[in-house]
Hints:
Elements: H1 2-21, E1 30-37, E2 43-47, H2 59-73, E3 82-83, H3 86-89, E4 103-104, H4 106-114, H5 119-130, H6 133-146, H7 169-182, E5 194-197, E6 200-203, H8 208-211, E7 215-223, E8 230-237, H9 249-259, H10 285-293, E9 312-318
Amino acid sequence: MSTMLRAAASILLAWATLAAADPAPPPIAAKAYIVVDLLSGQTLSAANENDRFEPASLTKLMTAYVVFEALRDGRLDPARPVTVSAVAAAADGSRTFLPAGKPASVPDLLQGMIVQSGNDAAIALAEALAGSEEAFVALMNQRAARLGLANTRFQNATGRPAPEHYASARDLATLAAALIRDFPERHPLYAQKEFTYNHIAQANRNRLLWTDPTVDGMKTGFTESGRGGARARGVQGHESGDPARLRSRHLAHAAARALRGHFRRPRDAPAVRGAACRGRESGDNETHARTRTGGGIPGRGARGGSRSGLPVAWLGHPEAPLPLTS
């Protein structure tokens, strides 16, 4: 932990120096964002950071926190398989493609939720812990209150649009910091670039894992709603490689780049094998997957095959979502 904190301090010092010496970072086209030094708690830059917006799949940061807490406290057995319910298997949006009625391990469900942003995996974990998604959401809101997230309220475990489902950039930065502080051993999951389940390989939707070696998480999200759509992103950086690299202009502009909403898969990212699901977080990844595999993906509910440091938290809600590209 001390090494992580020293690395965080070094990066933040470099960031502050660059911000003063180099040209100003490009404007951030976001309704709300925040850049936080998680070592000192200082806010380095922010705009409308307490405004409420749809968190989309950043909701799964809290879903993960509640599950990690249950695993730590012995309320959820990681060795006990979870039988996937029909409700979980029928989830809309991003999916791990869990077959209904089949067992799935807790580690696989965690990777499905965190790496693939699987809504079905999130619901399966919620049901395994609390019996139903509704009961699990009560745990999420209790934990949000204990963390002091004054502008956050959950109505589901996945980030589906709902009238009273919202969060703020500041609250999500606080939640990201709590995840790293309380469960550092789980953090490598957020840097994992790919996960294969049920013979379907999907890449992590956080493209910065490929384009920026100082990034190792944490979550991206996209959702469409009657309000014209909302996009949210959470990113964290850490020191890596030659310290001289920190003196480059790259780090000073990294937060701005992260918040500009570039969710396209980078050219140098490996092609996702099999059913390359690169659809939007909340809706069309199954359509893309079926197109790429000739329809060879189990439908919802189908029975099928088996199978660091955190110096800054950058969170934002761009005004207009950018289209995903192949």
